[in-house]
Amino acid sequence: MMKTVGIITTFRQPNWGSVLQAYALQKYIKALGYNCTIIDYLYPNEFHFSKGMKAFYSSKATLKNRIARLLGLRPKTKMQLLNEFIKNEMTISDSYNYTKIHNNPPQYDIYITGSDQVWNPNTMLGDMSYFFDFVKDCKNILSYASSFACSDIPNKFKNQYIHYLSRYNNISVREENGKKLIKELIGREVKVVLDPTLLIDGQTWTELSKKSIKLSLPQNYILFYMLAYTYNPDDAMTKLLNKVQKQTKYPIIPIGKLPNSFKGYIYDKNKHKPIGVYEFLLLLKNASVIVTSSFHGTAFAVNFGRPFVSLIDDKSSDDRIYTLLSRLNLQNQIIRNSDIDKYKLINFSYDIIQEQNKLNELRKDSCSYLINAIHYK
């Protein structure tokens, strides 16, 4: 009889990377022969709201806007597009809020805490659901590439972290800071593995990108993807974009928000077209250069073997990008926001063959960990 696997992670957020890391982990585990389901645990929910968190997006769209979108008179929101991808491409459980998952928890043979910032105390606020506190008796609880995205755990949460981490049969994390934290908390050496999106090779993602709507793309362009939830990169990113555009003379296609102060050449023929998961992949795959401050923007750049630079905050304790690029020997593709004025030229090229060989080596190692962890007895 096929064993069942339940993955808990954050994936219903207005963020392409969050959805794709969940999709990739499920796809890989299904390929191993397991009946794998993503637990549809809503985040944020009443627990997080009670701690002062606000919703990522408002569901209070006006009736006029809702009707207009249903009639195709207005483009769908990013979250609508992501939810369509989830519905069409992923296997999802019933929906759970905090109360429901603790009163009537889902039952599986194997429980996996997935990737993304599921163990970040600054965003989870003490919600131990991502440690499976609702699972009372299971012989196999493991994590794959789970992320803290910080370098310390507040004292008020430490005892909970120690207790629930000690229940795991196998633990792997996505960054070096996570490895250090586990060692400090429970004294265990754990493995740093690739983000789930890197378990799947670039060719497989290319096939998925073929489902994209038709986009207008210039022969060469700079794909720009900035996230600003951990720090404000506007000033440094404006300088970086100006330098890259001056060197290449390429137009910029932004995914999401541009820096407020950027006044360069934008290719805007797709600005009224919806950018869902398939379009996100297509734009990254075909870019001549990628400029990003996003972890998953970086991950897809290396998976597709595209020239790129990643901007990081040298004061941040979030070392996900640095860990990934260091393991691929691509530290030269990192630019620290405090160093941007030192660069006369931006080096966005690298030895792609060498990088892809190293990525394949790390992929095999990460797959080996996951296979052994799932087969734990």
What's the SSE blueprint?
Elements: E1 4-8, H1 16-31, E2 35-41, H2 46-50, H3 63-70, H4 78-89, E3 92-96, H5 98-103, E4 110-113, H6 121-124, E5 141-143, H7 155-165, E6 172-173, H8 176-186, E7 191-192, H9 202-209, E8 222-225, H10 234-248, E9 252-255, H11 277-285, E10 289-292, H12 295-304, E11 308-312, H13 320-327, E12 334-336, H14 352-374
Parallel strand pairs: 1-2, 1-4, 2-3, 4-5, 6-7, 8-9, 8-10, 10-11, 11-12
Walkthrough of the structure:
It contains 14 helices and twelve strands. Helix content is about 40%, strand content about 15%. It is of the alpha/beta class.
Helix/strand-derived class? alpha/beta
CA radius of gyration is 21 Å
Biggest β-sheet description: 5 strands, parallel
Written as H for each helix and E for each strand, in order along the chain, the element string is EHEHHHEHEHEHEHEHEHEHEHEHEH
Give the termini separation.
16 Å
User: Tally of extended strands?
Assistant: 12
Point out poorly predicted stretches: none
Query: In what range is the share of β-strand residues?
Result: 5-15%
Helix % is 25-40%
Strand order of the largest sheet: 3-2-1-4-5
Give the oligomeric state: single chain
Please state the average pLDDT score. 93
Count the DSSP helices. Answer: 14
Any idea what the shape is?
A: globular
